[in-house]
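Let's sit down with a protein and look at its sequence and fold side by side. Once you have written the record down, we can walk along the chain together.
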Amino acid sequence: MTIGHSHARRPRVIDLRDASQYQLICELDMRNPMDFLGRYMFRLHLGSLAFYIFAAVTAGMFIAELTSPSYTQASRVAQLILALIGSVVIAPIHEGIHAITYKLIGAPAVKFVAEWRKGVIYTIADRFVIDQREYLWLAVTPLFAINIALGGLYLLTSEYSLFIAGLLCLHTLSCIGDIAIVNFLWERRDQTIFSYDDYTLHKSYFYMQRSGDAPNGAANQR
């Protein structure tokens, strides 16, 4: 089962480098993403506005639980520590969902990179080309899957509500990089965009298909 192009229709990296058909419009350095995040994480549209509202709601839930008189001081501290530990544990789960989505799209191989000193962990499908619809799936699937699970746990339990609310808030905030990519792609929704990762350089490259060109039948699939 796949959710993307067939291999026959998917352009190759060598195709994207043909300047007569595609234009390189952005590079994302996955080891140092702050420049990209600074440019795109606060661009507003309906989808990103919904995310920021949801992030504010999760922060409000966390503050409400944190200030609730129903917790003893010891319980409050213990659940805060658990939330911090849980946010570290949930990071590879988040990336695992990215990896599963990559495989569903059709990526033959997926690699994980963790640079703990920089606080960076990410998933790479080396030199596998995806379009913007596929990238949107890739970006938002962990956000929805994990937050729906955490939201369900929050509603089902009261004893560990502070822990779950803290974890939900921290995970939502950690998705800001994925939302920055959504914002970048949304601004170019009328263009045909393709992207691929380079494992050696730890970069993602975004190409725009030049108007009127559709080599190998690789049309935008939206």
